[in-house]
Amino acid sequence: MARFYRLADARDGDGVYRHRVAVTFDPGVQSPVEVQTTDGYRENYGGFYTAAEALTYAEIFGYAGGAWILPYVERLAEGERISADEVVKHYHKLHYSYPDTFEW
User: Fold this and answer.
1) How far is residue 14's CA from residue 24's CA, in Å, rounded to a whole number?
2) Which tens digit of pLDDT belongs to each residue from 21-75?
């Protein structure tokens, strides 16, 4: 199991999420990026991707308010290890809170 950090999450006026991005920085995880998008009703799209695959969804990162995450995903795609602390500090500077997490 890996700890994922929900770093971007856009919701509609009813509180239903439209776009979401979560990332794990645990080493050895083959698909460390979750990208989700929905029409807000029944259809959900997305899943867990390698960092390189996730970069093809850069537009969704933007919709979710997570364009700032893309340089970290690029670094992961290049094989660099990134500490969760580095990214959580960046998140905290932007949002004045800490990201939700989940185990997967």
Assistant:
1) 28
2) 999 999 999 999 999 998 766 678 899 999 999 999 999 999 999 999 999 999 9
The residues with which 23 forms a beta bridge, in sequence order, are 5, 33
Q: Which structure tokens are listed for 50?
A: 């390698």
List of residues 6+ apart from 87 with CB closer than 8 A:
5, 7, 23, 25, 69, 72
Rounded Cα–Cα distance for residues 10 and 31 (Å): 22
Is-contact 13 35, C-beta < 8 A?
Answer: no
Q: Which two tokens stand for residue 95?
A: 């949002």
Examine the pLDDT at 18 and tell me if it is beyond 90.
no
Residue with tokens 């776009």: 19
Report if pTM > 0.85: yes
